[in-house]
Amino acid sequence: MRITQGTFSFLPDLTDEQIRAQVEYILQQGWAPSIEFTDDPHPRNTYWELWGLPMFDLKDAAGVLMEVRACRAQYPDHYIKINAFDSTHGFETQRLSFIVNRPQTETGFRLSRQEVDGRNIRYTLQSYASDRPAGQRF
């Protein structure tokens, strides 16, 4: 199952040149890129681990790609994404996010059904990857 989070997630994986073009766009907009990674891609897990600090004063896309390659080398079987934060007054939010690395095998999710009080039914989405301890999921 292919995880579809962020921009471009329905497209084939971006090449490094395509990633560079997107990072150049981020920098042209004056947004601050940052890199995050995780081995638990649950849709509600919006706070992935931060790789380094956000790069507020960066002017060259090569710096971001260098950090992406370092993160890939450290965590080759994790999801890695690039975020773009807009600090402009009135926005102060993330404007763009896209995945730049995936594990070779994406395990997917299961839907658990649970009967609770009365006739209520509760559904829970759980990642198969989270069945194993962190660091051993992929």
From TrEMBL:
<comment type="similarity">
    <text>Belongs to the RuBisCO small chain family.</text>
</comment>
<dbReference type="GO" id="GO:0019253">
    <property type="term" value="P:reductive pentose-phosphate cycle"/>
</dbReference>
<comment type="function">
    <text>RuBisCO catalyzes two reactions: the carboxylation of D-ribulose 1,5-bisphosphate, the primary event in carbon dioxide fixation, as well as the oxidative fragmentation of the pentose substrate. Both reactions occur simultaneously and in competition at the same active site. Although the small subunit is not catalytic it is essential for maximal activity.</text>
</comment>
<keyword id="KW-0120">Carbon dioxide fixation</keyword>
<keyword id="KW-0113">Calvin cycle</keyword>
<dbReference type="GO" id="GO:0016984">
    <property type="term" value="F:ribulose-bisphosphate carboxylase activity"/>
</dbReference>
<dbReference type="Pfam" id="PF00101">
    <property type="entry name" value="RuBisCO_small"/>
</dbReference>
<protein>
    <recommendedName>
        <fullName>Ribulose bisphosphate carboxylase small subunit</fullName>
    </recommendedName>
</protein>
<comment type="subunit">
    <text>Heterohexadecamer of 8 large and 8 small subunits.</text>
</comment>
<dbReference type="InterPro" id="IPR024681">
    <property type="entry name" value="RuBisCO_ssu"/>
</dbReference>
<dbReference type="InterPro" id="IPR000894">
    <property type="entry name" value="RuBisCO_ssu_dom"/>
</dbReference>
<dbReference type="InterPro" id="IPR036385">
    <property type="entry name" value="RuBisCO_ssu_sf"/>
</dbReference>
<feature type="domain" description="Ribulose bisphosphate carboxylase small subunit">
    <location>
        <begin position="4"/>
        <end position="103"/>
    </location>
</feature>
